[in-house]
Amino acid sequence: MTASTANHLWSLDDVLGQGATASVYKARNKKTGELVAVKVFNLVSYNRPYEVQMREFEVLQRLNHVNIVKLFAVEEMHMNPKQKVLVMEFCSGGSLLNLLEEPEHAFGLPESEFLIVLQCVVQGMNHLRENAVVHRDIKPGNIMRQVSEDGRSVYKLTDFGAARELEDDEKFVSIYGTEEYLHPDMYERAVLKKPQQKAYGVSVDLWSIGVTFYHAATGSLPFIPYGGPRRNKKIMYKITTEKPEGAIAGVQKVEDGPIEWSYRLPHCCQLSEGLNSQLVPVLASILEANQEKCWGFVQFFAATTDILHGITVHIFSLQQATTHSIYIHFHNTLSIFFEDVQAQTGIEPAAQHYLFQGHPLILEPSMKVVNLPPTTPDRPIILISRRPEKLVGYSYRERKDTINVFLFFCLVPQCQFYVQPFVYKIADEMEAVARELQNNNNMIERYCMVFSREYFIYSQNMFFLCVCRKSFEI
């Protein structure tokens, strides 16, 4: 069964989404065949006041931004001219919620994808605030994903049915939104049905953004009462309103049991410690029920822009077998960089020695971060401590087989292999070490693929092995 307007045609089976007042379908332009999304309003929608019905049209017509789903036209149903249809941009990647529901994202998005979500949502929200618009229903299901030809994601805010004009110093009293993402003050009235006439400001969007970012980073909601948010609504309200300052999550694991508060993202999420340390203060400051303590959009935009505009330096700590991402501004000096490395690895600046692509990297505290070579997760700067460090990055099997030799194998144009004995070399001995490594390269190369299969290590660009000294007879 099909439906149409003068310019577009769609099947009623091609449903992209359904809400209380409308359904969204995948449609095609009758002349060009171009894919679009059409939002068709139902009878419930027309029971609303006329100015409310027109609000979404008017808001979308004012907005024009790459991170907001574009409105192409407002048309009329072919068989019912009074029934309005919004013709909008079609997003091929579904919603952020669809992405989070995929098994590989059970513990949240990879860091690179999360940063794209962060950037797109921040830029989209900035455009809304520039146009004095409050969304009032931000959630992963209302963030669409467009996939470009090069495979990169672009996220776009959609569903402006609850949106309205609102300046920073104005308030509203009407209730919209989705339970799990609602600001506690709105939750109290909309879900618990308490007859309070509180006025709400633009900060309600910040709370929803905080829950959405936490969900994207971890794969789960931040506030979960025993039995779930929809079954235990009073405890849900208690968690969000009694949250200690600085906490970003609260979970009740046992019926009538205590709330377990979290002040950092869970270890199972895919974000690095560097991003974690910068994101947590933002979440703690916007997931704040007290509107006097909650950040405003000015602070939010400043903090998130600070994260997005910094340089990411990828570090591999050789002895610890751990990877690290250092988020830092390019105008900072390397003394700040050394301190950030110490904060994540525990290695003091005086003990830090660096290699990059097989060569010593001479770094002075007075140098600028911009002088560091560009890095990627597969081409990190190698950090070697001049002091013994505790092994933290190995599995049980790898620890068991370790005696005292580190093999670092890096696939660069001229394959270079580095063996770092447990006897730590001082700077003056680097030349002697280089000769020793060169003598062992041919022998190491023969063993590399054997050990990679044995330890199940398959990386296109880089892998790290910890093997026993006996194997190489050094």
Automatic annotation (TrEMBL):
Residues 10-317 form the Protein kinase domain. ATP binds at residue 39. It is found in: Cytoplasm. GO terms for biological process: positive regulation of gene expression; positive regulation of innate immune response; positive regulation of signal transduction; response to stress. It holds the Pfam family TBK1_ULD. GO terms for cellular component: cytoplasm. Keywords: ATP-binding, Cytoplasm, Kinase, Nucleotide-binding, Serine/threonine-protein kinase, Transferase. GO terms for molecular function: ATP binding; protein serine/threonine kinase activity. The keyword Hydrolase does not apply. Transmembrane segments: none annotated. This is Inhibitor of nuclear factor kappa-B kinase subunit epsilon-like. It comes from Sinocyclocheilus rhinocerous. The gene is LOC107739275.
